[in-house]
């Protein structure tokens, strides 16, 4: 996939004035009382420090300063608004200083928490990587990132220990193979999720790759979309397994077949988790493939123009949708941003296929794709290099990342599948993982993240291994998803897991701090095994320590196995179970 690169030769505008109103829009006067900071309602006067630094200078402009100044003069030369603000527009966050325990996460400033190193997020829209691209990322990881490389649940690879002095060379290498970090973070259109089996699955409704490519090449790096109220998450899939977690994105286009108009997309908007979780809603429209990029552009401009900017914890699109409702949102999109009506369309229906795509599967051309599970997304540059060699030996030239922290090797020669599986197992990548290894995810955690209270990766990996050992003979025919997060922000999607664990600090029996987890049970996204998607049930007052977590999960799963009715799902059992059984 060819990607755009926003590398302007002169500074981009800072957006000091409101954008022109879309055709047909009525710019309403400011409402009485306190402003919500909606550009087309209240004007563009910045109402908090984040809005002030964005108004002062477009975030995309920081690249030139990184290349011309900071990379030469070092970390100490970076001013605060760039360090903790605009550098995110190029995929850079300062990482957590080592040795700071979770008890101080909420009391120290960003400067006190930050090390003089960065996390760097590499965009891989649609999760699509050639082996050349994979090897480039892997070599950067080995040479510049202390061999770190994690697959996130946003189809990105994240590197750590990046020095500012090395960033220009890293960009040069990435862009030489068609990769970028443009708007991988910040108040921008983040990476576009796409079906990992786009273009290859035999049961695919349509291939979203052309629409993803059009969105990325046209709009990523566009200064007019580089100052949003908050981040904007997108997803497109044409696969009936619904493999892009469409209910928790700001916009999702989900493949459907219209009875008269043929294959196209069902449009969802306004999803998001964190401390105020809300599932997206259907607008009830059918979007033809050739309309998808234009519709995406309309939705993101609604967010830019009407999104709340006064309070950052109320600045996601989900809050606007909650006020407007889907009917008004559809009307504004059609009348003021598209200029035409979209036809009514059918809802997507999930099939029984597992959306993580782990295992060996037949492509529509007769070759195989092989889904591999690392342990909670934790990899390394060295292992990625070895995986690239194993994939090439199996006849493959491309890899896909998934929204479930997994990897797919495409186009495998059927006669070479066994060789690939053996090579992958030697790298601790399994196409036949235990149920908990397969269905456990974890965020970055306190190891590198300044927001985290607890360690996540090692804790979750060890728990998954213990649970697979302990529950191997239970005979469950349904997977139990276990998602572990280091803070309330839900990067690991705790509210939509069967068992979601939110890290926080608790008091130990001797009065000291210990890290523990708040428990959410019974969440889940659309699948053939669920009646409907839903958010988990929070068990108030229950805190599970890291040490006790495997025992707790085992206890709850065994109760489920003993009490479930017929083919009852875990979430359905949780909804009817007595709370004492869940503790």
Care to describe what's here?
The protein has 583 residues and is of the alpha+beta class. It is 29% helix and 20% strand. It contains 16 helices and 20 strands. The chain has helices spanning 39-42, 49-56, 62-73, 80-83, 110-113, 131-144, 167-176, 209-219, 292-306, 317-338, 381-393, 417-426, 435-438, 457-470, 549-563, 570-576; strands spanning 92-96, 114-122, 128-130, 148-151, 157-162, 189-194, 232-237, 251-258, 262-269, 281-287, 359-362, 368-372, 378-380, 398-401, 407-412, 440-442, 482-485, 499-507, 513-521, 537-545. The strands form 4 sheets. The protein has a 5-stranded antiparallel β-sheet with strand order 1-2-5-4-13. A 5-stranded antiparallel β-sheet has the order 3-14-15-12-11. Strands 6-7-8-9-10 form a 5-stranded mixed β-sheet. Helix 8 links the parallel strand 6 and strand 7 (232-237). The termini are far apart. The relative contact order is 0.10. The model is unreliable at 1-9 and 23-30 (pLDDT under 50).
Major sheet: arrangement of strands: 1-2-5-4-13
Total count of strands: 20
Structural class: alpha+beta
Number of helices: 16
Q: Strand portion, in percent?
A: 15-25%
Helix content range: 25-40%
Question: CATH superfamily assignment of the domain at 437-582?
Answer: Sulfite Reductase Hemoprotein, domain 1
Radius of gyration: 23 Å
What is the mean pLDDT?
93
CATH fold description of the domain at 437-582: Sulfite Reductase Hemoprotein, domain 1
Q: Which stretches are poorly predicted, pLDDT < 50 over at least 5 residues?
A: 1-9, 23-30
Calculate the terminal CA-CA distance, rounded to whole Å.
48 Å
At the first level of CATH, the class of the domain at 437-582 is: Alpha Beta
The CATH architecture of the domain at 437-582 would be: 2-Layer Sandwich
Shape: globular
The major sheet is characterized as: 5 strands, antiparallel
């Amino acid at each position: 996939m060819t990607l755009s690169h926003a590398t302007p030769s002169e500074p981009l505008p800072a957006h000091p004035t409101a954008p022109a109103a879309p055709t047909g829009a009525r710019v309403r006067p400011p409402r009485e009382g306190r402003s919500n900071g909606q550009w087309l309602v209240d004007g563009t006067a910045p109402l908090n420090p984040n809005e002030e630094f964005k108004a002062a200078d477009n975030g995309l402009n920081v690249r030139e300063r990184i290349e011309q100044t900071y990379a030469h003069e070092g970390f100490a030369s970076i001013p605060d608004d760039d360090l903790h603000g605009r550098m995110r527009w190029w995929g850079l966050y300062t990482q957590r200083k080592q040795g700071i325990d979770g008890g101080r996460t909420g009391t120290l400033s960003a400067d006190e928490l930050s090390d003089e190193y960065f996390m760097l997020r590499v965009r891989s829209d649609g999760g699509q990587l050639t082996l050349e691209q994979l090897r480039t990322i892997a070599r950067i990881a080995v040479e510049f990132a202390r061999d770190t490389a994690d697959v996130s649940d946003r189809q990105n690879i994240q590197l750590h220990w990046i020095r500012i002095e090395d960033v220009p060379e890293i960009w040069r290498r990435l862009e030489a193979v068609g990769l970028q970090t443009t708007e991988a973070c910040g108040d921008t259109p983040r990476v576009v999720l796409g079906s990992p089996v786009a273009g290859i699955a035999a049961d695919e409704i349509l291939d979203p790759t052309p629409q993803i490519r059009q969105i990325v090449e046209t709009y990523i790096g566009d200064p007019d979309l580089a100052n949003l109220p908050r981040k904007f998450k997108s997803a497109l899939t044409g696969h009936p397994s619904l493999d892009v977690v469409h209910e928790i994105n700001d916009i999702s286009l989900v493949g459907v077949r219209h009875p008269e108009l043929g294959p196209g997309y069902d449009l969802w908007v306004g999803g998001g988790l964190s401390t105020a979780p809300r599932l997206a809603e259907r607008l009830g429209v059918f979007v033809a493939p050739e309309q998808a990029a234009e519709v995406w552009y309309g939705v993101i401009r609604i967010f830019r123009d009407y999104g709340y900017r006064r309070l950052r914890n109320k600045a996601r699109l989900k809050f606007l949708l909650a006020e407007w409702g889907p009917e008004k949102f559809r009307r504004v999109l059609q009348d003021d941003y598209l200029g035409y009506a979209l036809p009514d369309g059918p809802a997507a229906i999930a099939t029984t296929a597992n959306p993580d795509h782990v295992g060996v599967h037949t492509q529509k051309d007769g070759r195989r794709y092989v889904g591999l599970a690392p342990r909670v997304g934790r990899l390394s540059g060295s292992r990625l290099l070895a995986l690239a060699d194993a994939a090439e030996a199996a006849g493959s030239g491309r890899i896909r990342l998934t929204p479930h922290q997994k990897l797919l090797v495409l186009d495998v020669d059927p006669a070479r599948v066994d060789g690939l599986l053996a090579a992958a197992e030697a790298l601790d990548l399994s196409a036949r993982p235990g149920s908990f290894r397969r269905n456990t995810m974890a965020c970055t955690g306190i190891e590198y993240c300044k927001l985290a209270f607890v360690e996540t990766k090692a804790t979750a990996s060890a728990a998954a291994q213990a649970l697979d050992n302990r529950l191997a003979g239970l005979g469950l025919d349904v997977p139990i998803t276990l998602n572990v997060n280091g803070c309330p922000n839900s990067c690991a999607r705790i509210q939509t897991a069967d068992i979601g664990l939110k890290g926080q600090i608790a008091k130990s029996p001797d009065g000291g701090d210990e890290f523990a987890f708040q428990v959410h049970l019974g969440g889940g996204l659309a699948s053939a095994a669920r009646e409907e998607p839903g958010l988990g049930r929070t068990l108030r007052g229950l805190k599970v320590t890291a040490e006790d977590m495997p025992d707790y999960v085992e206890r709850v799963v065994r109760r489920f196995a003993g009490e479930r009715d017929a083919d009852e799902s875990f979430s359905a059992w949780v909804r009817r179970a007595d709370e004492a059984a869940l503790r």
